[in-house]
């Protein structure tokens, strides 16, 4: 079979590799039919997020079941499924608590499309076939009538945007939400869409990019255009019980934190652009800000996202700006479009 391999910054190519095989009773072999480009993928492809080559790319996928291990029940050959991007067993204590990003059965960070980032290379979704471990737990049936292209981002970015606002809005129904957009472009927009779907009375989106501002406005947000070097004054004196930092850069995180109301919640969807960052801890302490920074617990979060999608309240397709053939995926990884989905 073939898979798309990252060989270094700007160097992506389709290469031949042996077909994956079922190696345990809980495995499944899946044929990807729609693969969304994660916000992190272009940064990897361009070398902005350093990753040691070589490895196969792609980790947001909807696929068709080709083969099932003996212990995998509830699925059929030919069935279409959503595959959360992180490996998780479903049985360990962290998984049982809903912390599927911290599964104790695999090395921390183990995921599709990120090479040995977590100590175990699962291969990438931009491939003819993918082996899915713990398939009895990992696989989620694609609901009838849901376009695989629309669902392709649910394994990561859609769920990531949703988790930024779901719990805080459950605690404070209708609360205003601020989203600072930027280098996690689709995650920020999915946070906007999720906040609107979950009933926020006012969603404000700040960014410098015209395409993203237009998409956010179409989702129902009030938009504010502000360059990165002028983010500090973007919202004036307005404060929000819920804020989201999808900028990744320090000025965006600083705005999100400073605009968080006393006893509010701020979530960063990235660890930032450098290994160490400074936080205004004294101000956060005095205001009682709850700050969360982590990867999404994809398998635990995706079912709630699917419920919103199938109910017609959340449309991930509204943010997809381009659909690209697998044959053009190497170039598509470098395309400046907001959200791309690759199809065979």
Automatic annotation (TrEMBL):
<dbReference type="InterPro" id="IPR013154">
    <property type="entry name" value="ADH-like_N"/>
</dbReference>
<feature type="domain" description="Alcohol dehydrogenase-like N-terminal">
    <location>
        <begin position="24"/>
        <end position="143"/>
    </location>
</feature>
<feature type="domain" description="Alcohol dehydrogenase-like C-terminal">
    <location>
        <begin position="187"/>
        <end position="310"/>
    </location>
</feature>
<keyword id="KW-0862">Zinc</keyword>
<keyword id="KW-0560">Oxidoreductase</keyword>
<dbReference type="GO" id="GO:0008270">
    <property type="term" value="F:zinc ion binding"/>
</dbReference>
<keyword id="KW-0479">Metal-binding</keyword>
<protein>
    <submittedName>
        <fullName>Unannotated protein</fullName>
    </submittedName>
</protein>
<dbReference type="InterPro" id="IPR011032">
    <property type="entry name" value="GroES-like_sf"/>
</dbReference>
<dbReference type="Pfam" id="PF08240">
    <property type="entry name" value="ADH_N"/>
</dbReference>
<dbReference type="GO" id="GO:0016491">
    <property type="term" value="F:oxidoreductase activity"/>
</dbReference>
<dbReference type="InterPro" id="IPR013149">
    <property type="entry name" value="ADH-like_C"/>
</dbReference>
<dbReference type="InterPro" id="IPR002328">
    <property type="entry name" value="ADH_Zn_CS"/>
</dbReference>
<dbReference type="Pfam" id="PF00107">
    <property type="entry name" value="ADH_zinc_N"/>
</dbReference>
<dbReference type="InterPro" id="IPR036291">
    <property type="entry name" value="NAD(P)-bd_dom_sf"/>
</dbReference>
């Amino acid at each position: 079979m073939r898979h798309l391999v990252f060989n270094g910054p700007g160097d992506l190519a389709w290469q031949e590799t042996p077909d994956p095989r079922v190696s345990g009773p809980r495995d499944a072999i899946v044929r990807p039919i729609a693969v969304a480009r994660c916000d992190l993928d272009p940064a990897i492809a361009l070398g902005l997020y350093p990753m040691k080559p070589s490895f196969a790319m792609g980790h947001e996928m909807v696929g068709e079941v080709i083969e099932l291990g003996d212990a995998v029940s509830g699925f059929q050959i030919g069935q279409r499924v959503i595959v959360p991007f992180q490996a998780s067993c479903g049985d360990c204590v962290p998984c049982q608590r809903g912390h599927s990003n911290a599964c104790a059965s695999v090395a921390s960070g183990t995921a599709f499309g990120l090479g040995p980032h977590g100590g175990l290379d699962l291969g990438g979704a931009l491939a003819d076939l993918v082996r899915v471990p713990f398939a009895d737990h990992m696989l989620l049936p694609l609901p009838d009538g849901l376009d695989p292209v629309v669902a392709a981002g649910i394994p990561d970015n859609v769920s990531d945007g949703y988790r930024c606002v779901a719990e805080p809005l459950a605690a404070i129904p209708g609360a205003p939400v601020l989203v600072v957009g930027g280098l996690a472009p689709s995650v920020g927009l999915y946070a906007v869409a999720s906040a609107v779907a979950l009933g926020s009375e006012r969603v404000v989106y700040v960014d410098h990019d015209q395409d993203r501002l237009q998409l956010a406005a179409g989702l129902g947000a009030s938009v504010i255009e502000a360059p990165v070097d002028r983010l500090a004054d973007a919202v004036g004196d307005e404060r929000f019980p819920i804020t989201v930092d999808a900028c990744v850069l320090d000025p965006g995180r600083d705005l999100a934190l400073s605009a968080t109301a006393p006893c509010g919640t701020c979530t960063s969807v990235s660890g930032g652009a450098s290994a160490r960052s400074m936080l205004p801890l004294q101000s956060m302490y005095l205001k009682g800000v709850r700050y969360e920074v982590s990867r999404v617990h994809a398998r635990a979060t995706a079912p709630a996202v699917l419920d919103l999608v199938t109910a017609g309240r959340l449309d991930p397709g509204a943010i997809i700006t381009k659909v690209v053939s697998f044959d053009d995926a190497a170039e598509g990884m470098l395309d400046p479009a907001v959200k791309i989905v690759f199809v065979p």
